[in-house]
Specification:
The complex is a heterotrimer of chains A (about 500), B (about 325) and C (about 290). Chain B has 15 helices and no strands. With about 325 residues, chain B is mainly alpha-helical. In chain B, α4 packs across α15, α6 crosses α9 and α11 packs antiparallel against α15. Helices cover about 70% and strands about 0% of the residues of chain C. Classes of the chains: A alpha/beta (about 500), B mainly alpha (about 325), C mainly alpha (about 290). Chains in contact: A-B, A-C, B-C.
Chain lengths: ~500, ~325, ~290
């Protein structure tokens, strides 16, 4: 007993002294100092000796090694730099890496900010360089992404990061045309017809194998019903939008209850994928390709890219997926919502770079370069003459583009002109791209929001999702919806969040 | 500092008041031992104990710019612990964590031991090593892959098992989205993954048992069961108890990676554990202080359990120290 | 030796149970192997679950071995595993032996120090700072040194050393053997099974390690196997919102799993034959 105590005390002493040690000497020497590996500099050929090395980290994949990375080589040549880009396939790994590097002062020179919540945190902790005074130096970037875009990375009137150029929506419902034909049905145009088709796909054996083994509708999570919410004029759960000139949160939209009631009817048919809430990654897409489901809510790349159309054809040569306009309902006709505050990437520069004017200028050069005519073409399509040829203004891809220029988007730090870019790179998919882009959508504003203190978005998010699942699966009656809202406010601090969000959006001029 | 429980009397000891000089002499006498310990100790100090100051993050509002030392203290000092205790899900998280971990401990402890005993009883050499290799393989499949396989078997809409059920005229069972099956699947898949791998250590322990004991027993006409009961099991008792104590220390680690990959909103009520909550709340929102506070909470409980169980085990002469 | 009927029944029971366990363990691997050899569209056509490959193709393996980072990463992993395991074993044995001697002054303190780190850790940020200040970032040492000794293995080894008969040490000491020699010439040869077991734990640990590499290494040419495989697997788990993102097919994913785990699985049968009995007896008597 006593011995145990003594041991604990001694341990405590050791820990304390260790901490002191660590605190005082950051460069504590040890016999373990190794003959360090040469690091990343080996990759660079000796000729660009005066080039400034830029460390960049972001999420992504399939980046080739530097010797095969012709984009890196071209940029290095153009702006006299030595880019060292590191990409992480897993968003979680990336966050871990970014955090330890920021916390240990080992700052990258340019890095992707995971989301707006992180942006807020980084800004509050003084980690990011305020770009406002440098805006004139970033004129090409500004021209490229548009002034409006900078709102997305502005906090308290200061610009702390560069968002990518605006993106466009990809998601729609897709439906099996051949199944419709087989059952003699038309593509559903209203919510009632939608319900019938979903039911028929499950009950009337559209694949003709004599077994009741098909599903009407699949997707991943609650967003499977995005166009349904749209048909009732509401956004996805917990989204903000302007309705009839008033700022509204979908949870408080009176039409939300009706939408839930309809979704419950849909689920009651037994024709909706029972694992719709459990599907992650591309599980729902696989179900669709396997011929298990007749309708899916998904982005066009994951169902219409060559890679997948090939799979679809091989599994069933008759399978014919077409896009479906959102069904009309009592609240109108809207496809899944589109977040006008969202971006496909935010890039920031650490405040520490302030003192290294030369390097800072080089980062600006880089951002300006990939936003300018020459650089933008490079990071979009590759090397002129090798990966594409110009026919007047039109970019004509060569065969090599598909083969080796698939990674160039990793260098699109400021984005790209989305529509023309996609139409060039995905020429066969052009009609799907245009269709998805031209659907009416509720414009949501969540991308502009940051969470107030005392509000735990993880707990609240879980509560909302869980309760919604209970409503649509009939575990709780919809009459309990008001009760749900008051619990949300009382135990999840949702009121604080609502007030803060409303204030933030009003400041940006929404709902006034 | 001598162990009174030591079976073999050690010559130089006398439990009298220890004189400094005698203590010093003792240390000098064992200098070779200390020298051996040295590289390991340096490792522990450099890579384990120096970073240990990081636990103070739990009591600070960690700010990356200021670093660990200069970040302001949290006020009140236990602010991050309170965030955790006051979460509406606190009691559910604790219950889930404890139950899943407890089931894994109870149901997961026996199969590898049984496996080792069976392998030890197997008289066909090639068959033994074949089975040993086969059962060891699942350890190398990551949870992502295992979940993929589970889906292929258990999915309500397309799983093989449910196909059979439906073909036999039954109803499909929502194994992966129903609160009634989920924990069993967690525990079951872990046992499956760990069966052969967990047996390795017991096999090593069994191989350390003096074979003359078996010969003597055989001469006495003891049957197999009796030999297992009286020789093999006592022979690996030390290892079993040690593993048990160490596992108790990790009672609040219910297996983050497995659950994170396998759970979904419909089973959160039975599957959400401390680590998954910390991941969603703390790490995804960059709240290192919260993550650190929960880690400290878990470790403190683990420490109490390790100290307690070790003390208990010592009564039977089997403690870790 | 006369075999009783009882004994034969027991043998049969053992055989059947083990066979069942073997089958249950092997079928998922069979699945992984089959998918890795079958064109993905074939897999989907068959409902996504196959145990026997249909229309075999080695495309996935060919692609991984020629186009991906796998061959290079394989080299890194082997290097880290070999160097790492040797260092791990040496230091673990050196720690375990003194800690197994119950008369060692301060033994409890050291043991407590070892156990304590099983529960408490300072977290990734201070560890990163230590690794950084030692200049280990972006080197293979960053994948070896931060996990040089596993407390768990020290405790296992120590408890095996404790179970060696005390007379052994007494007689050696009378011979005037130095402690290092006792460890090397008496203790080590007597504990081959536990040494191999611990060695296996370390080897597998190094082989499966990816976290340290992700945290401490940014140079792609130093990425170990598991990081590369993880990149391939994760792409379908967390699809990036990007149209160009090439999703690796399940065939490719499974092939990467096979490539990453087969070598280490094949190590095991070679170790098994050393888990033999009777070694202890022979040397004590001899």
């Amino acid at each position: 007993m006593k011995r145990m105590k003594a041991v604990s005390v001694m341990l405590a002493v050791i820990i304390l002294s260790c901490s002191v040690l660590a605190g005082c000497s950051s460069g504590n020497s040890s016999n373990k100092e190794s003959s360090n590996a040469p690091g990343g500099s080996t990759a660079n050929s000796g000729e660009s000796a005066g080039a400034i090395k830029l460390d960049i980290i972001e999420t992504g994949n399939n980046l080739p090694t530097p010797d095969k990375d012709f984009i890196k080589q071209a940029i290095d040549k153009a702006i006299q730099s030595d880019l060292n880009l590191t990409v992480y396939a897993s968003g979680d790994d990336y966050k871990n890496q970014l955090n330890v590097r920021l916390a240990s002062g080992n700052f990258p020179d340019l890095f992707q900010v995971p989301d707006r919540a992180s942006l807020k945190q980084f800004v509050e902790q003084g980690l990011l360089l305020d770009l406002t005074p440098y805006m004139d130096k970033l004129q090409p970037v500004k021209d490229f992404i548009g002034d409006e875009s900078l709102k997305k990375t502005t906090m308290d009137g200061k610009v702390y990061a560069v968002p990518k150029a605006p993106n466009i929506p990809y998601n729609t419902y897709w439906i099996r045309k051949d199944w419709l034909d087989k059952l003699g049905l038309q593509p559903p145009a209203t919510t009632d017809e939608f319900l019938n088709v979903v039911k028929a796909f499950a009950d009337q054996d559209p694949d003709g194998n004599g077994k009741k083994d098909t599903l009407g509708l699949t997707s991943s999570k609650i967003s499977a019903f995005a166009p349904i919410f749209g048909a009732f004029g509401v956004g996805d759960p917990n989204t903000f939008y302007v309705k009839d000139g008033k700022l509204t949160n979908s949870l408080y939209d009176p039409a939300m209850k009706d939408a839930l009631g309809y979704i419950k009817k849909l689920i009651d048919t037994g024709a909706v994928d029972p694992e719709i809430m459990a599907n992650t990654g591309l599980q729902h897409q696989e179900k669709a390709i396997k011929g298990q489901a007749g309708i899916i809510w998904i982005d066009w790349p994951n169902l219409s890219k060559d890679q997948f159309t090939e799979q679809i054809k091989k599994v069933n040569p008759n399978a014919d997926w077409i896009q479906l306009a959102p069904p009309k309902g009592p609240g109108g006709q809207y496809d899944g919502p589109f977040d006008i505050g969202g971006t496909s990437g935010i890039y920031a520069i650490p405040k520490a770079l302030e003192n290294n004017k030369e390097k800072l200028q080089k980062v600006f050069d880089l951002l300006n370069f990939v936003s300018g005519q020459e650089g933008s073409m490079l990071v979009q399509f590759g090397i002129s003459g090798t990966h594409y040829n110009l026919d007047g203004d039109k970019v004509v891809p060569t065969e090599l583009m598909g083969k080796e220029a698939g990674f160039t988007w990793l260098y699109q730090f400021t984005g790209r002109p989305e529509m023309t870019y996609l139409q060039t790179k995905f020429a066969p998919q052009t009609k799907y791209i245009e269709f998805a882009n031209s659907q009416p959508r509720i414009q949501i504003l969540n991308g502009f929001l940051t969470n107030p203190d005392g509000y735990n978005p993880a707990d609240a998010g879980r509560f909302i999702e869980e309760e919604f699942v209970k409503f649509i699966y009939g575990k709780n009656p919809l009459t309990g919806y008001e009760g749900f809202l008051s619990t949300l406010e009382s135990s999840m601090n949702f009121k604080t969040y609502m007030d803060a969000s409303t204030k933030q959006l009003e400041e940006l001029g929404y709902g006034k | 500092m001598n162990q009174r429980t030591a079976v073999h009397p050690v010559q130089e000891t006398a439990p009298k008041p220890v004189l400094v000089s005698e203590f010093g002499r003792n240390i000098w006498r064992y200098k070779a031992f200390y020298l051996m310990l040295l590289p390991g100790l340096i490792y522990y100090i450099v890579f384990k104990y120096i970073p240990m100051y990081g636990v103070i993050i739990a009591f600070k509002n960690f700010n990356m710019m200021d670093g660990i030392w200069s970040s302001p203290w949290a006020s009140p000092w236990n602010k991050h612990f309170l965030t955790f205790f006051h979460s509406p899900y606190f009691s559910q998280l604790l219950t889930n964590t404890f139950l899943i971990s407890f089931y894994k401990l109870v149901f997961g402890m026996i199969p590898p031991i049984a496996m080792a005993l069976l392998l030890n009883e197997c008289r066909i050499k090639w068959f033994k090593s074949l089975i040993q290799t086969l059962t060891y393989m699942p350890h190398f499949l990551s949870w992502v892959i295992i979940y993929g396989i589970l889906l292929a078997l258990l999915s309500q809409s397309s799983g093989l098992l449910n196909q059979w059920l439906k073909d036999a005229g039954g109803e499909a069972i929502p194994f992966l989205t129903s609160t009634s099956y989920f924990r069993s699947i967690l525990v079951g898949s872990e046992i499956w993954q760990n069966l052969g791998w967990g047996a390795i250590i017991y096999l090593a322990a069994i191989s350390g048992i003096d074979p003359t004991l078996y010969e003597a027993a055989r001469v006495d006409g003891a049957g197999r069961m009796r030999m297992i009961w009286h020789i093999t099991l006592p022979g690996i008792r030390t290892v079993i108890i040690m593993l048990l104590i160490l596992k108790l220390g990790h009672i609040l680690d219910a297996g983050f990676e497995q659950i994170y990959i396998m759970y979904n909103i419909q089973v959160y009520a039975v599957a959400d554990i401390l680590d998954t909550w910390v991941f969603r709340t703390g790490l995804q929102q960059l709240n290192f202080s919260l993550a650190s506070a929960v880690g400290l909470f878990k470790a403190a409980i683990g420490l109490v359990l390790v100290l307690g169980s070790n003390k208990l085990a010592k009564r039977w002469g089997e403690g870790i120290w | 030796m006369v075999k009783s009927t009882n004994d034969r029944i027991a043998n049969a029971v053992v055989f059947v149970i083990l066979l069942a366990c073997g089958l249950v363990a092997v079928f998922p691997l069979l699945y992984v192997l089959s998918v890795s050899l079958t064109p993905f569209s074939e897999v989907l056509k068959n409902g996504g679950f196959i145990l026997v490959p249909r229309s075999i193709t080695f495309d996935a393996y060919h692609k991984l071995l020629t186009e991906s980072n796998i061959p290079r990463a394989f080299g890194v992993t082997v290097l880290v595993t070999v160097i790492g395991t040797i260092m791990n074993m040496a230091i673990t044995a050196l720690m375990a032996y003194p800690l197994s001697r119950k008369q060692l002054p301060g033994r409890n303190f050291f043991l407590m120090m070892v156990v304590f780190t099983l529960l408490f850790s300072g977290g990734i940020i201070p560890t990163y700072l230590v690794v950084k200040s030692l200049g280990l970032l972006d080197s293979i040492w960053a994948m070896i040194l931060p996990n040089l000794v596993w407390s768990f293995n020290v405790l296992i080894m120590k408890s095996f050393y404790e179970s060696l008969p005390e007379e052994l040490f007494e007689s050696a000491r009378i011979d005037g053997a130095k402690e290092f020699r006792i460890l090397l010439q008496i203790v080590a040869p007597l504990s081959v099974p536990v040494t191999l077991t611990i060695g296996l734990f370390y080897t597998v640990g190094h082989w499966n390690e990816f976290f340290q590499a992700i945290m401490f290494v940014t140079d792609r040419s130093l990425f170990p196997l598991q990081v590369v495989v993880r990149e391939i697997l994760i792409q379908t788990q967390q699809p990036l919102e990007n149209a160009e993102n090439m999703t690796p097919s399940e065939t490719l994913q499974m092939a990467s799993v096979i490539l990453a785990s087969l070598p280490i699985i094949l190590v095991y049968p070679f170790l098994q034959k050393h888990f033999t009995k009777g070694m202890l007896l022979g040397s004590v008597k001899g």
